[in-house]
Amino acid sequence: MAETIPNGRPDSAIIDGPTNPMVTPILTDLYQFTMAYAYWKAGKQNERAVFDLYFRRNPFGGEYTIFAGLEECIRFIANFRFTEDEIAFIKLSLPQSCEDGFYEYLRALDCSDIEIYSVSEGSVVFPKVPLMRIEGPIAVVQLLETPFVNLINYASLVTTNAARHRFVAGRSKILLEFGLRRAQGPDGGISASKYCYMGGFDATSNVAAGKLFGIPLRGTHSHAFVSSFLSPDEIIDKSLQHHDGSSVCEDFVSLVQTWLNKLKWSHLLGGIFSETNQSELAAFASYALAFPGSFLALVDTYDVMRSGLPNFCAVALALNDLGYKAVGIRLDSGDLAYQSCEARKFFCAIEKEFGLPGFGKTNITASNDLNEETLDALNKQGHEVDAFGIGTHLVTCYAQAALGVVFKLVEINNQPRIKLSEDVSKVSIPCKKRCYRLYGKEGYPLVDIMTGENEPQPKVGERILCRHPFSESKRAYVVPQRVEELLKCFWPGNSDKTREDLPPLKEIRERCIEQLDQMRPDHMRRLNPTPYKVSVSAKLYDFIHFLWLNEAPVGELQ
């Protein structure tokens, strides 16, 4: 839904600043200020410029990317003003020959004359297609380059990484982001939690992210908690009230021991274990006394099958007697496929022997340095894991360090500009553009097409020629069954356009999931995915190559 702003001015008072207070106008590269001064010195600072923000290659060897970070960019420009301290530091950092008038110019700067058109956050996007189009006075837009690229690059990369993990794990599994301790600093940890949730994860261990963004929190205990106990005798208060409040069990630990003995002599479970580790049992019983309604135990501190699993089950069965239902176990080492299958058999045997409906479906969570490859391997091996806790490989984007977002000038004072290179992938697509997604009969997106700003919009049912931007022979006619315009106005500046609302995180997450569901399966697969087609209109193709020839110097052979 779009919001009309009185007089066309974005009301920055209703938009909070960036999540990270370090995101200020001086979170940028020095050359942005040297260029701004040179523009100002030449009297060019207010010339109207158009920049495209896009990326050149999909990450992780895949054929899609999720766009993220837009909200933080809008928060940044809504509160863009230099403080006196910042101006003083800029003055110290630039040569003394820079005139004082430039610093007066910086004092007055804001983003009221900037316009931003963007793909909606959480959308599936592809190389070369602008994620954002930024219009405004060239010096101001240039000062936005580094922070925008910074805010979009990691956000889109880690959201895509999360979406890829979700795709491999499948819809039915619970995915938990456990990456805070391994993230690249506090901001990396906070950002990862937010964008992994956007990309399809269900919860995080990060308490600060839970508070900031309303992400569900999950977590239990570590190996240290288990090994901190020496024996059940350490538990002082052993009483536990029945779930319905009708009675009190005065010695919960004895009830647990009774159930452990029953399991030990069970004819279905006989021989699996003999004497379990009693300090581990004490830790489990103590944790259950603290959290009887949400008991989940880490069972691999000593031995999963001979100690951790039977100890958990004894505590879970004691809780069941008092009207509580244990959540499950977590496996954090070893052969996760084998252990999860054996644990499931154990749970099912208990359900059968003791007549406990649903016990066989007790939740099994797995962690231990998981990534896309290990999830895929577990699927091929066969496993009984219900939830995965994923950390290091997810939040650090271990498989690829950066997305490679770029910010290129495409028009100045209504004159299209092009950046040339011997590497064709680095040639920019000039001029202010409109971007569309064309859908086929089956509902899948077929192609993204860029057109000149004043070209007519593609129409449903009408054939349109789609051309590869740089390869003459790659072209195809498309008859779209649905046409979606991709770039919407999220910051209208001084124009009279309406501003799109910034949706809450949960809605962006739902959009991401919905968008991924719309994609053709062969674009999504892990191995050898089919490239998605990105094209330009015939008219824009001709103009790109006209401008290319016009700007490229002609060589001379001697």
From TrEMBL:
<dbReference type="Pfam" id="PF17767">
    <property type="entry name" value="NAPRTase_N"/>
</dbReference>
<dbReference type="InterPro" id="IPR007229">
    <property type="entry name" value="Nic_PRibTrfase-Fam"/>
</dbReference>
<dbReference type="InterPro" id="IPR013785">
    <property type="entry name" value="Aldolase_TIM"/>
</dbReference>
<feature type="domain" description="Nicotinate phosphoribosyltransferase C-terminal">
    <location>
        <begin position="432"/>
        <end position="543"/>
    </location>
</feature>
<dbReference type="Pfam" id="PF04095">
    <property type="entry name" value="NAPRTase"/>
</dbReference>
<comment type="similarity">
    <text>Belongs to the NAPRTase family.</text>
</comment>
<keyword id="KW-0436">Ligase</keyword>
<keyword id="KW-0460">Magnesium</keyword>
<dbReference type="InterPro" id="IPR041619">
    <property type="entry name" value="NAPRTase_C"/>
</dbReference>
<dbReference type="GO" id="GO:0005829">
    <property type="term" value="C:cytosol"/>
</dbReference>
<keyword id="KW-0808">Transferase</keyword>
<comment type="pathway">
    <text>Cofactor biosynthesis; NAD(+) biosynthesis; nicotinate D-ribonucleotide from nicotinate: step 1/1.</text>
</comment>
<dbReference type="GO" id="GO:0046872">
    <property type="term" value="F:metal ion binding"/>
</dbReference>
<dbReference type="InterPro" id="IPR041525">
    <property type="entry name" value="N/Namide_PRibTrfase"/>
</dbReference>
<keyword id="KW-0662">Pyridine nucleotide biosynthesis</keyword>
<dbReference type="GO" id="GO:0016757">
    <property type="term" value="F:glycosyltransferase activity"/>
</dbReference>
<dbReference type="GO" id="GO:0004516">
    <property type="term" value="F:nicotinate phosphoribosyltransferase activity"/>
</dbReference>
<dbReference type="InterPro" id="IPR036068">
    <property type="entry name" value="Nicotinate_pribotase-like_C"/>
</dbReference>
<dbReference type="Pfam" id="PF17956">
    <property type="entry name" value="NAPRTase_C"/>
</dbReference>
<feature type="domain" description="Nicotinate phosphoribosyltransferase N-terminal">
    <location>
        <begin position="27"/>
        <end position="153"/>
    </location>
</feature>
<protein>
    <recommendedName>
        <fullName>Nicotinate phosphoribosyltransferase</fullName>
        <ecNumber>6.3.4.21</ecNumber>
    </recommendedName>
</protein>
<keyword id="KW-0464">Manganese</keyword>
<comment type="function">
    <text>Catalyzes the first step in the biosynthesis of NAD from nicotinic acid, the ATP-dependent synthesis of beta-nicotinate D-ribonucleotide from nicotinate and 5-phospho-D-ribose 1-phosphate. Helps prevent cellular oxidative stress via its role in NAD biosynthesis.</text>
</comment>
<dbReference type="InterPro" id="IPR040727">
    <property type="entry name" value="NAPRTase_N"/>
</dbReference>
<dbReference type="GO" id="GO:0034355">
    <property type="term" value="P:NAD+ biosynthetic process via the salvage pathway"/>
</dbReference>
<keyword id="KW-0328">Glycosyltransferase</keyword>
<keyword id="KW-0597">Phosphoprotein</keyword>
<keyword id="KW-0479">Metal-binding</keyword>
<dbReference type="InterPro" id="IPR006405">
    <property type="entry name" value="Nic_PRibTrfase_pncB"/>
</dbReference>
<feature type="domain" description="Nicotinate/nicotinamide phosphoribosyltransferase">
    <location>
        <begin position="326"/>
        <end position="426"/>
    </location>
</feature>
